[in-house]
Every structure is written in C-alpha cells, then in structure tokens.
Amino acid sequence: MGGDETRWLEPDELETWLSYVAATTLLEGALDRQLQRDAGMPHAYYQILAMLSESPDRSLRMSELAAITQSSQSRLSHAVARLECKGWVRRKPCPEDRRSTFAQLTEEGFAALAAAAPGHVRTVRRHLFDRLTPEQVGQLREITRAVLSGLGVPGGDPRDVLPG
Amino acid sequence: MGGDETRWLEPDELETWLSYVAATTLLEGALDRQLQRDAGMPHAYYQILAMLSESPDRSLRMSELAAITQSSQSRLSHAVARLECKGWVRRKPCPEDRRSTFAQLTEEGFAALAAAAPGHVRTVRRHLFDRLTPEQVGQLREITRAVLSGLGVPGGDPRDVLPG
DNA sequence: CTCCAATGGTTGAGCATTCAATCGTATAGT
DNA sequence: ACTATACGATTGAATGCTCAACCATTGGAG
After folding, report:
1. Where on the phi/psi map is residue B87: left (φ > 0), alpha (ψ -120 to 50), or beta?
2. CB B32 under 7 Å to nucleic chain C
3. Are A150 and B159 in contact (CB < 8 Å)?
4. Among residues B4, B140, B14, B44, which one has the least CA distance to residue A47?
5. Fewest CB atoms within 10 A around its CB: which of A34, B29, B33, B152?
6. Interatomic distance B83 CA / D15 C1' (Å)
7. Is the CB of A91 under 7 A from strand D?
8. What is the pLDDT along chain B (164 residues), one digit of tens a residue?
9. pTM summary value
C-alpha cells in the first residue's frame, strides 16, 4: 500500500469544511428541536410522513420509502414501527410480491403532518432561505446535486431513486 | 394567533431543500461509516479529537470544546466519557475554577487521530471537494457562513466561538 | 456574611440509529 | 422440480444523542 502522500485540505477548503460541518450540524439540530417540541417527532420522521403524503394512495413499498428518505432498511423498519404505534402509519402486505410491505399514511398521520408543516417550513425559511440570495439558492442546489451524483444518486435529483 | 397564511416553499426552493437534505444525510452517513469502519469512531468523535489536537497543550475546557464542536454539554460529556475509556482523552480538573474541567488529548488519542486522518480527508475530498469547482467551494463557504450567522455564530466563522 | 441566581459539568432514562444475523419469499440455473 | 442465490423486510444488541434533573462551585446583591 505505498503512495501514502495524503493530499490535505487547502486553507480555504478547510475553512469551508469546518463551516459546512458547523452549519449542517446546527441546522439539523434546530430542525429536530423544533419538530420534536411542536409536533412530537424528529426531522427524519417528518420526512417519512411527507414522502408518503405525496405518493399515490399515500403509500409506498418499504424499500422505496427507504430510498427516497435516504434511510437504511433497518432504520426505516424501526421508524415505521414507531410511527405505527402512534397511529400515523399502517403496514399493508403486498399481494404481488409477498416479501414486500406497503407503508401507508393514516388520516391521523396526515393530520399530524398537516399540523407540523407550517412550523417546520417556517423554521427552514428562517434558518436557510431567508439568509440566502436567490443566486445562492441556485448555487446550493447545484452544489448539493453534484454531491448527490457522487454518492450514487444519478442526476442528483433525490426523486430519481423512485422507479418510473 | 391569527395570520395563519404559511409561506410555503417555491418549487425551486423545495427542490433545493430536498437535494440539500439528501446530500447532507448521505454525506454524513458516508463519513460516519468510513470512520467507524477504519478508525472505530463516529465523525463526531473525530471532530472532538481534531479540535483538541489543534489547541494549546492539546486541551480545552469542556464548555469550549462543546462550543467548537457544535455539541451540547451533555453530548460532549457522554462522548468524552467514552473517549476516556478508550484512552484517547484524559480529564483534568481546572485549578482556577473548580467547576471547570479540562479535556486533554492523550498520546494514544493523537496517534488514533493521526491514523484516522488520511482516510477521513480522502473521503471528504472524494465526496465533496472533488465534485465541486473552485467557484462552488467559495459559494459553499459563503452559504454556510450565512447560515451560521443566522444560528448565532457571529461572522459565521466556527472558530469565533473560541475566546482569545 | 448570607443567600440566591448563574455557571460548568455530570447523570440516567428514553429514544434513534447502526450493524449483523435472521426469516420468508422470489428467481435463476441446472 | 430442486437447489442456490438474491431480495425485502424485520429483529436485537450495542452505541450515540436528547432532555430534564441534578450537584458543586462561583459571583453578586442585600
């Protein structure tokens, strides 16, 4: 394993990296706190409900749901179990492929999502979009798309992981 | 509590937001997996060791360390407890203020950090900086600084939380 | 000096996530 | 048809994090 010359970060890259880590950590923390306090769910669970709410019949296969929420199957399985306990999601067997399971948003789940949404969007706006110029929003979109395409999401559009 | 007209995200804002969430989630996941696999520590612990290694005497007060790692005091206390068990960090009482505690990087901790650093930097490069143009790096720095300043980090430089 | 609020830090309970192992089902190869 | 492999999903143990409660120390205010 020769060739051990590591290419360290340049000063401006290091500064960017530290700033990136700090900002994403604090932003995710703020999002989680707001949602936990006002809606009794972490941000990851909000995302699950939100993705379900936009899908036909408000339901998706577990593996599809895992893909669009950037979640491992295990993580999603635990999460859906908890959401099911809260009455926000319901599991349904898939007749065509009996390995598969659908997760479906319940009415209560939709209501919880609808109640949580305004506060969540306000928080996202306050901490992100209100601080950026329109140009910066476009730049951020291109930057995150580039990162996504390097992480195995073709085209960088997160919804591309969903089949046809 | 009137005025319940929520200002929802515009289509391009929504697309940016989804892309941002996906990219940051996957990137943090990739970082955590690589460090856990190759160095036996999550990314948050790497950061703790890294910040200590750059401080005078390789040591910092717990509350200072919490601030520069964007960590709650509780989180840091648990983390340092674990790092202490691994022999990577040592606690020392502060003579001037007996409420305060110093966390100091041990030689073993420094060695573990040094061993972990090349792989970590390679991962950061591969997933982030290698995918961005120099202009985009600058844009990302400005964007994250703007977000930071909105989250209570003056000037948006994460090191500004450190006194002196 | 005494009390009281603020500060620095720790603790324990509960929740979320990861990893590895497992189970049942589907699919392909022979 | 029979077997091996892959797939979709779940489980349990171990780890990390959050929240709230707590303890000890400090710095004032009266």
Report:
1. left
2. yes
3. no
4. B14
5. B152
6. 13
7. yes
8. 667 789 999 999 999 999 999 999 999 999 999 999 999 999 999 999 999 999 999 999 999 999 999 999 999 999 999 999 999 999 999 999 999 999 999 999 999 999 999 999 999 999 999 999 999 999 999 999 999 999 988 765 555 444 43
9. 0.94
